[in-house]
From TrEMBL:
This is Large ribosomal subunit protein uL4. GO terms for molecular function: rRNA binding; structural constituent of ribosome. Forms part of the polypeptide exit tunnel. One of the primary rRNA binding proteins, this protein initially binds near the 5'-end of the 23S rRNA. It is important during the early stages of 50S assembly. It makes multiple contacts with different domains of the 23S rRNA in the assembled 50S subunit and ribosome. Residues 44-79 are annotated as: Disordered.
Length: 208
C-alpha cells in the first residue's frame, strides 16, 4: 500500500512511500488489541482506594446491646459493619493493577491498530519538520493545511522534539508521540495518525 508524502504546507511532494505490508497490511487481531488496551488502562490506575475495616474505625468498643433477647443479631460495639458508620467488610485495599503481557502480543496489538487505520485511510505521511520556536498557531496551521484539524490527531515523530511538543500541547484533540512510545490505545483513540517520514521508516525496528 502506497501513500503520498506531504509537506507541512499540505502540498503533495510528488513522492510516495510504501507502507510495510507486514505491519499495515495484516489481518487485525482484536483479542491482542483488547489485552494491550486493558493493560494500558490498568497501568493508569493509581490503586490508592481504601475503606476502613472494623478495627480501624474510631469509636467506642462498649457492647451496645445484651447478648440475647433483643430479637436480632448480636451486634457488639458501634464499629460493627451492621450499623451505619461501622466498618466495611472486605472493602477495597491499595493494590497494583499491573499484569504482564508478552512482547509479541503487544507488537501484534500495535500492528493490528495500525492496520485498522490503514484500512480506513487514516494514515498521513508528512516530510520531517521542526518549528523554530514553540508556536501553537504554527501547529494549528499545519493541521489545517493537511486537512486533519477536524479530527482527533496522533502525530508520530522519529525522536523527541520539544518545539513541536509544546506547540501541540494546548491543541484540543492533538497528541504528539515518539515512534518508540507508540502504543495501541493512542493509535485507536486517534481519528487520524500522522507520521513524520523518518518515523515511518524506523517503524520496522520497533515492531519487527
Amino acid at each position: 500500500m502506497e501513500v503520498n508524502v506531504y509537506n507541512i504546507k499540505g502540498e503533495d511532494t510528488g513522492r510516495k512511500i510504501t507502507l510495510n505490508e507486514s505491519i499495515f497490511g495484516i489481518e487485525p487481531n482484536d483479542h491482542a488489541i483488547y489485552l494491550d488496551v486493558k493493560q494500558f488502562m490498568a497501568n493508569q490506575r493509581q490503586g490508592t482506594h481504601k475503606s476502613k475495616e472494623r478495627s480501624e474505625i474510631s469509636g467506642s468498643t462498649r457492647k451496645i446491646g445484651r447478648q440475647k433477647g433483643g430479637g436480632g443479631a448480636r451486634r457488639g460495639d458501634m464499629n460493627s459493619p451492621l450499623l451505619v458508620g461501622g466498618g466495611r467488610v472486605f472493602g477495597p485495599k491499595p493494590r497494583d493493577y499491573y499484569f504482564k503481557l508478552n512482547k509479541k502480543v503487544k507488537n501484534l496489538a500495535r500492528k493490528s491498530a495500525l492496520a485498522y487505520k490503514a484500512q480506513n485511510n487514516a494514515v498521513v505521511v508528512v516530510e520531517d519538520f521542526s518549528f523554530e520556536a514553540p508556536k501553537t498557531k504554527d501547529f494549528i496551521a499545519m493541521t489545517k493545511k493537511l486537512k486533519v484539524s477536524d479530527k482527533k490527531l496522533l502525530m508520530i515523530l522519529p525522536e523527541a522534539n520539544k518545539n513541536v511538543y509544546l506547540s501541540a500541547r494546548n491543541v484540543k484533540g492533538a497528541n504528539v508521540q515518539t515512534i518508540s512510545g507508540l502504543n495501541t490505545y493512542r493509535v485507536l483513540d486517534a481519528g487520524v495518525v500522522v507520521f513524520a517520514e523518518s518515523a515511518l521508516s524506523a517503524i520496522d525496528n520497533i515492531l519487527m
